């Protein structure tokens, strides 16, 4: 039902300097795959087929990553390295990719507004690729898309965070209307220590209805002088409905060094090493079958 997924990826990534001085944060690899590829896979799994990426200066490698590299492909053709490209080839074939450039970094709300031309006048998802989400069964966007079918309004993914960390997030308050679903009646971007309305923090997954664009247009710069999506969402919550969803799964803040290291260790042990072992077992059994 939701076709478009918007990836605001124009930020400077200052928390990860100097790594992000000339390399987009979204291209940092967790094990052997860039952050944005995890996000794109999650969107495809949720049935989305149009990936809309908001880029900025020095972000060309994002476009190159979701394109063919004929020279490289020719070079490794017929070797056992070819299979290392299977996954990304499949991803590229499963979706279309469009890009728009945010000329001035005026904040997440402004980045989302910049993507309007790409997503059009329909509900769409937003993924902040530096929030890496993993799950046992169903991706966070799939969980949210199912919820959208039922409620048809904007949805933000939230997670409980320790009280002394609420000042890093947009924080919501509201009434629990069902297991893990809250109708939002207040939200504050990066509240001062001790003033957060709850410990439920918004993480980098959203489903937004298109009326959000006009609300962003009418939003003045807020915290940090940036146009904040939280401020526009609060207006939407007051005039209509915004839900917060306590998703199932784990989320790593890969925009911070600590979160990135945690994600790398987790993905190595729980994804990469397991896939590798399964591949090797698969090859061994095919080999045995062919001998038999
Ligand atoms: P962050 O604040 O987490 O990203 O923005 P940042 O600014 O790149 O990182 P730090 O804090 O300096 O380390 C959340 C998301 O919004 C995008 C970022 O790329 C990130 O995915 N963003 C932010 C934009 O696309 N444009 C902006 O003007 C601001």
UniProtKB/TrEMBL annotation:
Key word Nucleotidyltransferase present: yes
A GO molecular function held by the record: UTP:glucose-1-phosphate uridylyltransferase activity
PANTHER family xrefs: UTP--GLUCOSE-1-PHOSPHATE URIDYLYLTRANSFERASE
Residues of the Nucleotidyl transferase domain: 9-266
E.C. number: 2.7.7.9
Catalytic activity, reaction form: alpha-D-glucose 1-phosphate + UTP + H(+) = UDP-alpha-D-glucose + diphosphate
Record-linked SUPFAM superfamilies: Nucleotide-diphospho-sugar transferases
InterPro entries: GalU_uridylyltTrfase_bac/arc (IPR005771), NTP_transferase_dom (IPR005835), Nucleotide-diphossugar_trans (IPR029044)
Cleavable signal peptide: none
Gene Ontology BP annotations: UDP-alpha-D-glucose metabolic process
Keywords of the record: Nucleotidyltransferase, Transferase
Function: May play a role in stationary phase survival.
Family: Belongs to the UDPGP type 2 family.
Protein name: UTP--glucose-1-phosphate uridylyltransferase
